[in-house]
Amino acid sequence: MKRSDRSFDVIIVGGGHAGVEAALAANRLGAHVALVTHRFAALGEMSCNPAIGGIGKSHLVREIDALDGMMAAAGDAAAIHYRLLNRSKGPAVQGPRTQSDRALYRAFVQRFIQRAGLPVIEGEAVDLLQDAGRIAGVELADGSRLSSRAVVLTTGTFLRGVLHVGLRRSEGGRIRDAASVRLADRIRDLGVSIGRLKTGTPPRLDRRSIDWGRIARQDTDAEPVFLSFLTNRIENAQISCGVTGTTAGTHEIVRAGLSESPLFSGAITGTGPRYCPSIEDKVHRFADRSSHQIFLEPEGLESDLVYPNGISTSLPEATQQEMVRSIPGLEDARIVTPGYAIEYDYVDPHALSHDLACPAAPGLFLAGQINGTTGYEEAAAQGLVAGLNAARFALGRESVILRRDQAYIGVLIDDLVTKGVSEPYRMFTSRSEHRLAMRPDNADQRLTPVGRDAGCVGEGRWRAFCAKREALSALRDALSRHRRSPGEWQALGLAVRGDGVRRSAYDLVSQQRLRVREIRALTSDIPCTETVLEEQIEAEALYAPYVRSESARSELAGSDMTRVLPEGIAELTGSGLSNEVLNRLRNHRPRTLGEAAAMEGVTPAALEILRAHSLRSLPGPA
To answer: Which CATH class is domain 204-343?
Structure first.
């Protein structure tokens, strides 16, 4: 970038997963974009676990990909281990996940940014420029100013970040990177509500010091499920991960060290993620458990570092070493970098609108952990939406809002904006009342046309999408046209019910769960196509009747929000409500179903249970 070029349509502050997707989305719309980050070399850094996807999170990754984002492509380009989670369950709740080579992932992101021609400015943004109350750009620590019509803040854990290892604390956005204090002060001046959250990471181990012969092995999937709709081959050598676990001795070491844990000494005031607790939390909260599983995830093909997923900790370094060496296979393991907790500022997402704009400062958009979320995938999803809408704002166009019944990204943003957060928000399939319709396999069918209309889907992806859509339509039509009686199907060799009803091949897939390839092998009327397309049709057919029922229930429940909840609803043990939901009901005592729906942590499934109890207990709405 020429040093004289200091004026842009959109400036992105932060080069993490949210910032990268924001910059690329704004750039795809044709906006003049600059990305401000401390170090170009840190772009695409996987600062915590070296993995992309998983249950719930993979839905977001596929949706990012459907909108022509980068994360899925980067995940596949860096994948050294593929694993489909929830394989034994239905495709609506399955979760493709990749173990990534950190160096390959980072290199892919940096190449992608360079090929997009995006200007990257190395520096620290310390102030927001305003003109008549509207955002007008940013000021950097060296005193230079960049002007713009919109700014997207994707500051991650850097706002007033504090690192904790035992009772030792230091300022930092992550290890080896400074915190952002002046910008944090500036955001407070906007008058938005600010809180503190906490996250953490485990120690990194030297691969050569691990006794792999004593550790169970988890192999990569023989037939991997790729993250991106455009990926068609494995890029790298595939490796195995290790599986071990804590012991009773490990737990005793942790308990003995709690007095020096910042979590238990009061040094940390921010709330940590409920669904990704530290080993201190696990030992304290689940005192009856004698072991917790640990996955040993190599950080790269050429790296000697191993990420022990499951023992995030902020205990003193000496205690961490003692704890690690009490784990089978790690008796001689050497810690290269200790685990630590990080506490940071976040903005209450109630302050945002559904396009991730901050009305208190027109032209300002926020995305990622600054909004109270946790995880690469949640950050990237918000980054794409914020970048898209910041560019549309700068170019004088209307915002694009994704609905709850349209995308998990819509669920994520609606939950944040309407319910807020009291702990770092993580995506789960249970958060969506439309989860049977919004599967990972059909994310492109749901969102690529939306992205095309919004201007963020390029020609290459659109051509690939149109070809896939035509192939799916042809296969669906052929299956629907091909109708036979039970006897005729049986004569072909298919074990179908002999009830006299003529059924199409599509009906057999839907009602009797036959595979497309089984039917195709017996008749020439069904075209041969890719396995992934056949599997998508099978999922669509399988869920079709349930999707109709799900939609009807959602509409009925939506019209029933004034229904009064019965007395004692919070004491319904054995009702199917989780302990988390019961605790929230006890603490907040909602009077109606609508009040319960507005509470953080109350999922659509929980609302259905509450509605059923209210129907049995009371005659009608208030």
So the answer is: mainly beta
